[in-house]
Amino acid sequence: MIPARLIxxxxxxxxxxxxxxxxxxxxxxxxxxxxxxxxxFLMAVYFHGLERDExxxxxxxxxxxxxxxxxxxxxxPSADKHSTGGIGDKVSLVLxxxxxxxxxGVPMMSGRGLAHTGGTLDKLESIPGFRTDLSLSRMQEVLxxxxxxxxxxxxxxxxxxxxxxxxxxxxxxxxxxPLIATSIMSxxxxxxxxxxxxDVKVGAGAFLPEEDDALELAETMVEMGETYGVxxxxxxxAMDRPLGGAIGNALEVREAIECLGGAGPDDxxxxxxxxxxxxxxxxxxxxxxxxxxxxxxxxLDGGGALDRFASMVEAQGGDAGVVGHPERLPRAPVVLxxxxxxxxxxxxxxxxxxGWTVVEMGGGRRxxxxxxxxxxxxxxxxxxxxxxxxxxxxGEVHAADSDSAACACGALRDSVEINTGxxxxxxxxxxxxxSAVGVERL
Length: 442
Ligand code: URA
What we know:
Number of helices: 16
Radius of gyration: 21 Å
Shape: globular
Bound molecules: uracil
Strand content: 15-25%
Largest sheet: 5 strands, mixed
């Protein structure tokens, strides 16, 4: 194989056959294809996409790059959820222990921050001591003892995705339908689960902001899941504004703990309950969405989900005391309150600007392997449709120093659109369900 010839063909819009895909990506894992060659190939895929057979071959190589969990001995049904990525999306932190409370085994494999979006692993690592690099056998032990486990790809599990993920993050090649679909589905299908729920974001903060593209992504991933025998449903959910109020790693863990305790922002709770119900449906542990939702609400309000989260944190080496004492999470030295400059109605909150500002503040990576500041970010104090007066608090900035805080406060003011007119038309929180039987508008 001459890598440059395959790159040239893809760059020209041509197709590769399955053995070529296997050799190119296998060669990357073996050190025969370099990072710069893979980056060039990813950029060609970004512009030209992948044909159906190329996509299937890439998914196969990615799954086979590591081991697949064998959950056949697990005495309960297993299911998981994955989001295509958004701003303030901390649902996984709440959902894994919540679904475990519903009687599911949840072996959740997540990723790090990607472009302007945060990553579950980074968020979890803001809990002192929390390990996200569990071996396959430790992952299974935690799953069996706690009912849920949240970890990252290692040399054993989906290693090709981990390497491509880092490279895509550093080379502006994240927002590609085939690369997102194979990245997510390789991790999820390596988990050996029976049911899967996909949260496909749509709107300005999503990698694929347009509804048609998001639907195509959802349909592609549902088909991949079903092809591998995993019952898969996708929900299209709003990312035209951030989810909840907290944006930034430790701040999001804090808000997730509030939600686990039955409080927290309404949109976060609602989306989490709907996804929990969907997980119960794909794995058959509850007869109806309403029964599943009621059980999930009870697990949040009754404290069961929070206790389960604490057990998981402890089993993964973390300080479970953060549950009762969130002040033990990393805290930024500077907290600046930002006020509205005029009166009106909050008509929009631009998620992408806020996400990139968190990266700018040090809360995300500019290059592969960069250390990140887990304490920085925003806490929004307004929601869409809310009326504000000049001087009203729109949000807090948590920053490493006062210069960075002042810049971020400017970005927050730019992101929050305040109109004198009264009509605000946000996307519905959940707009579509995609399953093996087709697309349903909700
Ligand atoms: N989440 C992933 O795991 N991969 C992507 O490419 C996007 C979101």
